[in-house]
Specification:
6-stranded antiparallel sheet, Neuraminidase, mainly beta
Length: 460
Amino acid sequence: MKFPSFSILVVVLVAQPLLAQGVGPEPLYKSRILRSGDAERLIPVEVALQREDLYLVVSSEGNGSHDWSNWIDPELVMEDGRIVDLTTLSWRAAFSTVGAIRAGKTYRGGPMTVAGKEYARGLGTHADSFIWFEVPAGATTFRAKVALDDGGAIRGAELTPASVRFLVFDHEPIGFPRAPDKFNSNSRDPQSLPADQLAAPDDLEVTVWATSPMFYNPTNMDTDAEGRIWVAEGVNYRKNRDRRPEGDRIVVLEDKDKDGKADSSHVFVQDPELVAPLGISVFGNQVVVAQPPHLIVYTDVDGDLRFNPKVDRRKNVLSGFNGRNHDHSLHAVVGGPDGKWYFNQGNCGAHLKTRDGDEYFVGGPYKGGEDPVADSQAIGGRKSSDGNVWVGGFAARMNPDGSEVRIIGHGFRNSYEHTVTSFGDVFQNDNDDPPACRTTWLMEGGFLGFFSPDGKRGWR
């Protein structure tokens, strides 16, 4: 149940910089830290080779965002003077914490560009990353140019927090998670991060409680009064929209023998209308699912933890949210000490018509998701029935029956599930690049400023 409590335990999983995770071999080459504001973001590299292994490493030296990194014109010089283009060789293994590693393109698939100049030959990645090659016999030298790509360093004519370091090893660097050569996003086989790759404070321990196939691709979870974990799945997310034609699921996990691991899993509901829902909240026998354009309440009348439309009830308690099948959309409901339900919505926009006859327009310059209820740009700056102009991501509260809806804050980018303390204070993290970049106390009626107050411009 997502209710406040008088004592709060906060568990934070912190991703440590890769170079700080262990003591390993000295690099053959280590660049200075490259930042978006540097006068020169392209540096030549030349390294003598003595072993058959070559590891190209990029380490994030900032907050992990915008770190588009390029190995430009990477090549091997052979004993006989021949030049071998490294991009024509297959790597043994490669790993990147964000996106894919691509030959001849940025990690996002566009042209590699540095200071306005395009480069056709190279390896595009995003820190943190490594690429492992087996060097052919007779190679004496590796040389390349390393660079921060314009796509990460500059956004909207302004500099970003991009900050990276390039390294070259001939032994496997310690602290880098090993990964399959290729990640198959279309696979139904579980691919997960080992628990020992997660970092936690000394007085906390990370253990595995449940894994696939008990559930797949969780987007949100909640714990009920009996200690069961309810999970919203997002198998049909974005480009994988039709991977599960029967619809996404709400799954219930339980540790029946109390040994510290889940041993039971079953489906509460599966519905073609569920497309990567981002919120699940359990209040007694009511299961609240955030599925744009609706906030859905399933009532488990007979209490068997399985939704049966012949016995149980389903109601759209509030409708009008943009962002279906998109992450900037409706997030989970949290119960407050006043008996109200609190929730937030990302900056895809909304046009809400409440049971009390109130009408809320929440717009802005951003668009996203399938089948929008309203054109968020067109309604940007339009007054709602309460006389206010609401823009961007927003937070609201209401009665559990959908009455007395009130917007209590706005101007966010994409604030995920917030928390309400026993005193009624609301705290939230606003999701950005990097995630959870702004942790704020929400002043009622407050405006965070990600968009202009009239909903026509971004914060820049």
